[in-house]
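User: Please run a holo structure prediction.
Assistant: Happy to. Please share the sequence and the ligand.
User: Here you go; the ligand is iron/sulfur cluster.
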Amino acid sequence: MSKFQSLQKYEETLASGYRLLPFRFTQLEGDAYVASNMVGEFIVMDRAALDDFAGGRLNPRGPVYDELKAKHFLLDGDSDVTVDLLSVKLRTKLAPLANFTALHLFVTTLRCDHSCPYCQVSRANDDRQEFDMSEETALKSIELAFRSPSPVLKFEFQGGESLLNLNLIRFIIEEVKRRNAEERRDIQFVIATNLALLSDEAIELARQHDILISTSLDGPEDLHNRNRPRPGNDSYKRTIEGIQRVRRELGRDRVGALMTTTAASLNQVKPIVDEYIAQDFRGIFLRPLSPYGFAIKTKFYQAYDQSKWLEFYFEGLDYIIDLNLKGFGFTEYYAAMVLRKMLTPFQPGYVDLLSPAGAGVAAVVYNYDGDVYASDESRMLAEMGDKSFCIGNVHSNTYEEIFLDDTLLEALESSFASSVPMCSWCAFEPYCGADPVFHHATQSDFVGKKPLSAFCNRNMAVFKGLIQRMNSRPEVREIFERWAYM
Ligand code: SF4
């Protein structure tokens, strides 16, 4: 059997009056198919329309033809600017790649006062100061960060509990600002903290340097304290007091929160969303658990499978959509990032949704000991004993040695979703990312076998779910369009 149609078949297509531009299609459910082009514009149609379109038999006077033409799926006699428009859109989508690394994560300490069983970082007890970053390591890391060509440099301080090494955070900020007096880049600072140890000094530092605070809030008090144990079992109380204090003293939008879904969260998505509303957040990121750090050591990652998380996710998403339909504006941030890819010409900077992978390109991590990792997940993997994504050390390697390292380049080379098996013909490829660290961690392979990949399984279900919801209800599409442009 021939793999290809006969030449005559293609000649008939040409003679029909339009030519096909590159597109891919995937079945949504039943007779409904989604087709997408290389810049992510998409159209949902039935099987017969798809067959007619691909076979060159589509009626030029029908509405499907007009939509396909407007979205650059076909080229006919009066649309000779289509290819130019398509290439401009593609260039716009890929433009952020040229800026290289904007996000620089500094692990100021591994010490932590919490002992979360799902912790994605293998923490150290809070009296073990040998796990603090030194000023010498910080200076060398700053030097590397400023070698990045990006006009925006975001410095994020992480732990452990980053505030346990507040003096080093102050040292780094002052040094970055001193250097930037000449460089004049757009500098942003973020402190990731559980807020339990928020001090007057930390608040004052944040005020002086316009620092954004990022914290963890897993849901209502019971769930949060169960997920995030600390001496006194008062993590929730301290976090909420910290959030309120930051808002009172620094401003309403100077604090954001992230949640992690554990097995205990799975039947509580509405109370979790309600908790975020009660704490006056404007949205929530319904995050799955990562297969790294203590999460895997304590078997938390295996505690639920992907289908359970997807049920949790869609129950939460539908609840949030209903709130919006009733007039209460609230956003699910993972959906918002995907929708930005689906409905706008722009790319969110979220590492997991970048292709080629965001590892080392969108973000880089300077560990407390000077080791440099291609992503936060790479560092977590190293804490489990797998240093495959350690791309150098600030004390012994140059910028060129670190960022042109084969480890990084090989991972990036195999992370162009448009050229890997299954992704290359998947209609969702323009929205998806590549996660070589995840696939290495779960399948010992940078690319991964996508039918067995939880990353693929999860993303595909989310992409389908979002398209189905906005395709079947115009009022939901309006909400999604607002989220996409946030
Ligand atoms: S990972 Fe899965 S959903 Fe994403 S592009 Fe590849 S095949 Fe499609």
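The radius of gyration is 24 Å.
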